[in-house]
Amino acid sequence: MSLRIQLWLIFLAPILLIAGLFAFGLTIPVPHLGRDYVIRLILPDAGQPVDLPEVLGPQDKTRPLVVIDAGHGGKDPGASGGGRREKDIVLGLAIALRDELLEQGGVRVALTRDDDRFLILEERPAIARRLDADLFISIHADSAGEISGVRGASIYTLSDEASSEAAARFAARENAADGVNGAVLSGKSEDVSTILVELSQRKVQENSAEFARLITREGRGVLRFHPQQRRAAELAVLRAPDVPAVLYESGYITNPQDAARLASEEGQAEFADVIARAIRIYFARQTRG
Ligand code: ZN
């Protein structure tokens, strides 16, 4: 063989091998193992971000999944006070809650972020939806500006107005292909779709309120709540139309006692204990209900 042909073969051999694999259905016979090995080309699913967070805990999809969202992160520090930043405090709380839930077992857990990274607001409920979560809790710490005396936790759910508005918008957007809570929307008229989404949304709102109630009940005498402990607001992070969601303002970073408590190991353990208990009771009622 001339040198030129040998060089051509060196270049062509891998190409011919790959072409051959395609021609034979990507199957490589491995006789001594008695079976064929199939090469799979793993491609990310269309429309799915490749960086969905890992689901921790039992790898059994019948187990309920709670998505914990530590607010802010990365270039967005959130509120700050007394040298502390909201993004750090809420990450500490989120991790404490994750660990408590995993230690007790039986529940699957995912965090929207487990480090100091920036996520846009809409990504957070979107993660819960894509993971098909059963419950979503976004953790924050409030600021009262110069008024350092204001303290205590409060729990936000999506206001009814914002909720049906979100439902209508969701219905319009997702009309063509998607479904909510098993209600297939494709092929249905826009009016019917809106009604189906609203019914689903009403149930989700009830469940969100129930979870918020359980947090206040389980936290009584343990966590310090703001005088107005339950609130409703139009919060983008709560706009997942089919995942019950609450936003937990853990306290005021502008209040030195609140900030110190929330940043301490005891404060984190207290929080994790109460919220984990509320989550367990919530899921127990759902399965019974
Ligand atoms: Zn915040």
Q: Could you characterize what this model shows?
A:
This protein is an alpha/beta fold and 289 residues long. The protein folds into two domains: 3-39, no CATH class; 65-288, Zn-dependent exopeptidases (Aminopeptidase, 3-Layer(aba) Sandwich). It contains seven helices and twelve strands. Strands 6-3-7-12-8-11 form a six-stranded mixed beta sheet, sandwiched between helices. Strands 1-2 form a two-stranded antiparallel sheet. A two-stranded antiparallel sheet has the order 4-5. Helix 6 (256-263) packs across helix 7. The N and C termini lie far apart (79 Å). The chain binds zinc ion (ZN). Zinc ion (ZN) binds next to loops.
Please state the average pLDDT score.
82
- Across the major sheet, the strand order is 6-3-7-12-8-11
CATH architectural type of the largest domain:
3-Layer(aba) Sandwich
In terms of per-residue confidence, which ranges show pLDDT below 50 for 5 or more consecutive residues?
20-48, 174-184
Rg measurement, Å: 25 Å
- Category from helices, strands and their pairing: alpha/beta
Within CATH, the superfamily of the largest domain carries the name Zn-dependent exopeptidases
CATH class of the largest domain: Alpha Beta
Number of strands: 12
Give the N-terminus to C-terminus distance in angstroms.
79 Å
Question: How big a fraction of the residues is strand?
Answer: 15-25%
The small molecules bound here are: zinc ion
The structural domain count equals 2
**Biggest sheet: strands, sense, closure?**
6 strands, mixed
